[in-house]
């Protein structure tokens, strides 16, 4: 078990597999990815070959330009920690007919973690940190994608970060209610009611950017939260009290600035 800090001050729990487990999980991942890739939605962009954040943002722009200017910003509460094992195995069994592979994946899901030298069982969730976890999360949320497509709702999804678009606020509110019922009743996942909001697209934060509409066209800008995060990180890196020499500080700054500019 490894814990890393999240933006909101809480900790993200990772489950780092042993070297042998990592290799086996990677092998399963490489066999299953091409099988599932043809089943996945075109509106899903996270953890998929030749797709990324910028593709998701371009997809969102196209939808907004088509007149869908209200958004349901869907927030799944602790998604990776609350995936229902039975539901995931049922979904996997529809495609994977080899029981040994399904059984092996089930064992990985139930393997538990070592936390400060003590064993902790895992009754639910898919541990973040392993090579198989991103694929399993996409397989689970592909059910949500298919439901949204069946209803004819335009959306973009990057991992567990989804936005559903509507043409009116009233329609968006209806969608929020009905899709929450579907997620909690059929997929057994938890929707964060406080963070799942219905709003006009202007100023909505998605993947570090926010949208605004100018002359009828949707444009992107760096979200104020992303800017303030960058500023506080630069303060950390240029702090004279961190015990780094000039060369190390210069290298760290170069790496961070190059990464930030590369993304934004």
Q: Unreliable segments (pLDDT under 50, ≥5 consecutive)?
A: none
Strands side by side in the biggest sheet: 6-7-3-8
Shape: globular
Indicate the proportion of strand residues: 15-25%
Biggest beta sheet attributes: 4 strands, antiparallel
Query: Considering DSSP H and I runs of 4 or more, what fraction of the residues is helical?
Result: 40-55%
Number of strands: 11
- Structural class, please? alpha+beta
CATH class of the largest domain: Alpha Beta
Order of helices and strands: EEHHEHHHEEHEEHEEEEHH
Overall average residue pLDDT: 93
- Radius of gyration from the CA trace? 20 Å
Q: Count of helical segments? A: 9
Q: How far from one another are the termini?
A: 32 Å
Number of domains: 2
Write down the CATH topology of the largest domain: Alpha-Beta Plaits
- CATH architecture of the largest domain, by name, is 2-Layer Sandwich
Short note summarizing the structure:
The protein has helices at 19-37, 53-65, 79-82, 85-95, 99-109, 133-150, 169-186, 224-238, 246-263, and strands at 2-5, 11-14, 70-75, 113-115, 118-120, 155-158, 161-166, 197-200, 205-206, 209-214, 217-222. The protein is α+β, with helices and mostly antiparallel strands. It folds into 2 domains: 2-222, Alpha-Beta Plaits (2-Layer Sandwich), CATH 3.30.70; 224-263.
SSE inventory with pairings:
Elements: E1 2-5, E2 11-14, H1 19-37, H2 53-65, E3 70-75, H3 79-82, H4 85-95, H5 99-109, E4 113-115, E5 118-120, H6 133-150, E6 155-158, E7 161-166, H7 169-186, E8 197-200, E9 205-206, E10 209-214, E11 217-222, H8 224-238, H9 246-263
Helix pairs in contact: 4-5, 8-9
